[in-house]
Design goal:
The protein has about 100 residues and is α+β, with helices and mostly antiparallel strands. The protein has one domain (about 15-100): 2-Layer Sandwich (Histidine-containing Protein, Chain: A), CATH 3.30.1340.10. It is built from four helices and four strands; from the N terminus they run αβαββαβα. The protein has helices spanning about 5-15, 30-40, 65, 85-100, and strands at about 15-20, 45-50, 60, 75-80. It has a four-stranded antiparallel beta sheet. α2 (about 30-40) packs antiparallel against α4 (about 85-100). It is globular.
């Protein structure tokens, strides 16, 4: 195993992740993406989402990238956070995705 591989494994171990199922009846739409981007931009770290269908990771700070996930109700998304407020950010983003309706 190379030094770069070991370093990448250590970094992944330090990141926190959480799998969330989209509950909003409209799926991950513009209003939800905007709320998520605002939360991620304030966190002071890196936040990405992986669509469990194998699509590439997207930066949660980007509304456009979030919309490219095409996440419909029932879609499982894995949120990966790295930074000083990982737990708080994961909790807030999970709350947004668990809303059944948006205001």
């Amino acid at each position: 195993m190379t030094a770069i591989s070991r370093m990448a494994q250590r970094e992944e171990a330090l990141m926190k992740s959480q799998t969330v199922t989209v509950q909003c009846q409209e799926g991950l739409h513009l209003r939800v993406a905007s709320q998520m981007a605002q939360i991620a931009q304030k966190c002071g770290g890196t936040v990405e989402i992986r669509n469990r269908k194998g699509r590439p990771n997207v930066n949660v700070c980007s509304i456009i990238e979030l919309l490219t996930l095409g996440a419909t109700p029932g879609t499982a998304l894995e949120i990966v956070a790295d930074g000083p407020n990982e737990d708080t950010v994961l909790g807030k983003l999970s709350e947004v995705l668990n809303q059944t309706q948006t205001a």
